[in-house]
Write a structure and sequence with these properties.
- The protein is α+β, with helices and mostly antiparallel strands.
- The protein has 14 helices and 14 strands.
- The protein is globular and about 65 Å long.
Length: 422
């Protein structure tokens, strides 16, 4: 039912139809088994919940949690909308559900009497993985969205993941090929000034260092809000107060180059590999989709700085050096893999100060997000920030909606593919 996403993936030749008419990803692009595993009590186990070390009380709470999720998956409001759906604006706006945004994921668990530390870890891992935030910093609505949005009905599996060796680069390459020679790379927009019937832009050529003036009938500004605040002249001259409600998670990522696979006790290597007692969200085996399970590999290790206030996290990230980050990777993964140190050839580290928007309590159904979607003259906004959830599906939906709005502002008759968004 996500028409925009289906249209794009069909255009990319990534989908096929089953005999019953349902749509699924082509086998080649599905994440192959084993998909995920967890390191706990000295060895690896299948899945993400540490069932192997769970007490009966932990399993009972997990079962109760899953029943609550099933109830939400089954929910349909008076208009037939699901509780949680992609894109998120197609979710129900029933008060019972939107009120969940006002409390944290931690409060939601406490209010329902959940006491299992393993369940709390499992739910917090979900928040760290998609939002870069802990239980206290994540809206309960966003936490439940994580577990429910991709499951179409009770008893069904969550929608399968598609993956490519080059990640989102595959999508970028496709879109660039569609645009063809109209695409301009190496061009930095430094100023966007909306007028009554046009938009003026200052564009810096990164090679020649020449600044030129462009005039557009309409503009889609697909930049994070903190960038838009610097390039959009009305916002730069008089910064809107609602931008202060946008918070961002800080991350660093390390690519670990291995000359061989280190020993791994228990369940075999998976695409996603998570450690129970770790501040990271584990690592992804970059060569997993290439069907190479032995020999050299690259592991991508993800470390959200979720323990601290966002500003402090960025200060720590700014001060982080390669040696400190590499040491953390070696210590964290070394306890889960024998001979890990000798297998490592190189560790490359990237710092991302504003990696993703954080769905803090009160943000998703507050006023700031709505104000940020309002066009300024003929400047229309598109970014996952506008959803408050940093997923590709949300970014694409916002982009399509902005493109449709821009066309309508020019008098074009456009049938909305997604809707207008909220």
């Amino acid at each position: 039912d996500n028409l925009g996403l289906v249209s794009l993936l069909t255009e990319m030749n990534m989908l096929e139809r089953a005999a019953d008419g349902s749509i699924r990803g082509k086998e080649r692009w599905l994440v192959r088994e084993p998909e995920e595993r967890i390191f706990a009590a000295g060895e690896w186990h299948e899945g993400l919940f540490p069932t192997a070390i769970a007490a009966p009380e932990d399993l009972a709470e997990l079962a109760r949690f899953e029943r609550e999720l099933a109830r939400l998956v089954a929910f349909r409001d008076a208009r037939g909308r699901r509780a949680f759906a992609l894109p998120m604006w197609s979710s129900s706006d029933d008060r019972e559900l939107t009120q969940l945004d006002k409390i944290s994921a931690a409060s939601w668990l406490r209010q329902r009497g959940y006491r299992s530390e393993l369940l709390a870890w499992y739910v917090e891992y979900a928040c760290r993985d998609d939002y870069g935030a802990g239980l206290e910093e994540t809206s309960a609505w966003a936490m439940l969205f994580y577990f429910c949005a991709r499951t179409p009905e009770v008893g069904a599996e969550s929608a399968a993941f598609l993956s490519w060796p080059e990640g989102n680069g595959r999508i970028v390459q496709h879109l660039a090929s569609v645009v063809g020679d109209r695409f301009r790379s190496g061009s930095l927009v430094t100023d966007v000034r909306p007028n009554e019937a046009s938009v003026e832009l200052a564009v810096l050529d990164a090679k020649t260092r020449k600044l030129s003036r462009w005039v557009a009938d309409a503009v889609v500004l697909a930049t994070p809000s903190f960038v838009s605040a610097r390039v959009l002249r009305p916002w730069r001259d008089n910064r809107p107060a609602f931008l202060n409600d946008f918070r961002f998670a800080a991350w660093w990522v390390a690519n670990v180059h291995l000359k061989e696979r280190p020993a791994s006790k228990g369940f075999p290597f998976a695409w996603d590999n998570v450690l129970l007692d770790s501040p990271s969200v584990g690592y992804v085996v970059a060569t997993h989709q290439a069907l190479r399970d032995r020999g050299p590999s690259v592991w991508t290790y993800y470390r959200p700085l979720w323990e601290d206030d966002a500003n402090l996290a960025r200060q720590k990230l700014s001060a982080l050096d390669q040696r400190t980050a590499a040491t953390e990777v070696l210590d964290d993964l070394g306890r889960a893999h024998r001979d890990f140190y000798s297998a490592v050839e190189r560790i490359d580290v990237w710092r991302w100060g504003h990696a993703m928007i954080t769905p803090a309590p009160g943000f998703l159904f507050g006023s700031a997000r709505k104000h940020a979607q309002i066009p300024v003259g003929r400047v229309h906004f598109a970014h996952s920030d506008l959803s408050g959830i940093a997923l590709f599906e949300e970014a694409q939906a916002r982009g399509v909606a902005a493109a449709e709005a821009a066309l309508r502002s020019l008098g074009r008759d456009v049938s909305p593919l997604f809707g207008t968004g909220t």
